[in-house]
Write a structure and sequence with these properties.
It is built from 5 helices and 2 strands, in the order αααββαα. With 117 residues, it is mainly α. The structure holds heme C (HEC).
Length: 117
């Protein structure tokens, strides 16, 4: 009986530890983030791209892409900046809503926090 209990305790400990190390790369949770970029995303982008940027289909049938997973249409900083500033293919332009600095921050947010690059 003692041996079984000991085994359960040890096995449980190992599983618990494995759980700590095995979580893989942490997913950036927009809803939990206090970063300025995350709040800009919640205010300006979530309506189309979804609260966690996983993409969605709008009521008019427009398909809005997942910003976390490729293949990406816009890859370089310039392409992403240009797309956020000028919009196109169903995305609204943000050059009059966001400052240049804010658009730059969103480029970094997409690449670093969402795409993990
Ligand atoms: C009106 C709905 C709408 C809003 C609001 C919107 N988007 Fe988009 N977004 C789209 C659509 C539709 C596309 C696909 C455009 C295309 O295929 O060229 C897109 C594409 C993108 C892409 C390119 C994805 C790729 O494949 O490379 C990025 C990056 C992006 N949006 C970021 C943002 C950010 C950041 C915001 C907020 C500042 C935002 N979007 C707000 C609809 C929207």
């Amino acid at each position: 009986m003692f041996r079984i209990k000991l085994f359960v305790i040890i096995a449980g400990g190992i599983l618990g530890l494995a759980g700590c190390f095995d979580s893989g790369p942490k997913k950036f949770v927009i809803a939990d983030s206090k970063a300025y970029e995350a709040s800009l995303f919640r205010q300006n982008c979530a309506i189309c791209h979804g609260p966690e940027a996983m993409g969605r289909t709008l009521e008019d049938g427009r398909v809005v892409p997942n910003l976390r997973e490729g293949p990406y249409k816009y890859a370089t900083d310039e392409q992403i900046y240009d797309h956020i500033a000028n919009g196109g293919n169903g995305m609204v332009p943000f050059r009059n809503q966001l400052t240049e600095r804010e658009i730059r921050l969103m480029v970094g947010f997409v690449k670093r926090d969402l795409r993990g690059k």
